[in-house]
Amino acid sequence: MHCIFCDLIAGAAEVSVCYEDATAIAFMDIQPVNNGHVLVATRDHYASLADVPEEVAMHLFGVALKLAPVVRKITGAQGLNIVVNSGAAAGQDVLHYHVHVIPRYRGDGFDIQLPFPGSAVPDRTVLDATAARIIAATRDPVGPRA
Ligand code: AMP
Ligand code: ZN
Fold first, then answer.
1. Where in the sequence is the domain holding 79, given as residue range(s)?
2. Is residue 88 part of a domain?
């Protein structure tokens, strides 16, 4: 399947690279929320977080953490969102794993609204039961990843 990020990593499409190493490449989002919006992507093609080896995912998050204060400094942003959309249902449009580093300003109009206004506060028993299921599944040696 055609992948625009693989194209630009291979030099076959225009890109403004701001960081690269053997595993990761970071470049300017073509349609930034605000100027300075960076995408940190794997050099190799992995569709989503569920497909990325753990050490690669950790490395990418490390790169995002390294770039975050730099982006904030050069843009004068008042805050940042570090976001991963994993899977089309979660709003992932480009199915090549990447981490967004998004500079934010008060009143800029972008919002990842949490708590979600459409959701209710569940009973504590529901929260406890779900927490217990997560604990059990985390202990399972063949348990699922993201
Ligand atoms: P997501 O919805 O998390 O997959 O985000 C995809 C992001 O990729 C969006 O913010 C797009 O603006 C950005 N994007 C799409 N095509 C390109 C491109 N050719 N170069 C840089 N950023 C891109
Ligand atoms: Zn790709």
1. 4-112
2. yes
Supply the pLDDT for residue 1: 79
Which residues are part of the catalytic machinery?
98
Q: Give residue 101's pLDDT band: very low, low, confident or very high (50, 70, 90).
A: very high
Q: pTM score, two decimals? A: 0.95
Residue-level pLDDT at 140: 82
Q: What's the rounded Cα separation, in Å, for the pair 93 and 111?
A: 18
Nearest to 145 by CA among 99, 101, 94, 87: 87
141 sits in which H/E element = none
CATH (domain of 74): 3.30.428.10
Q: 122 alpha carbon to ligand 1 midpoint, in Å?
A: 35
The answer to whether position 57 is within a domain reads yes
Q: Is the CB of 30 under 6 A from ligand 1?
A: yes
Residue-wise pLDDT for 38-87, tens only, equals 999 999 999 999 999 999 999 999 999 999 999 999 999 999 999 999 99
Q: Is the CB of 95 under 6 A from ligand 1?
A: no
Q: Is residue 130 part of a domain?
A: no
The domain total for the chain is: 1
Which ligand lies nearest to the CA atom of residue 8 in the structure?
1
Ligand 1 centre distance from Cα of residue 127 (Å): 35
CA distance 141 to 146: 15
Q: Is residue 92 part of a domain?
A: yes
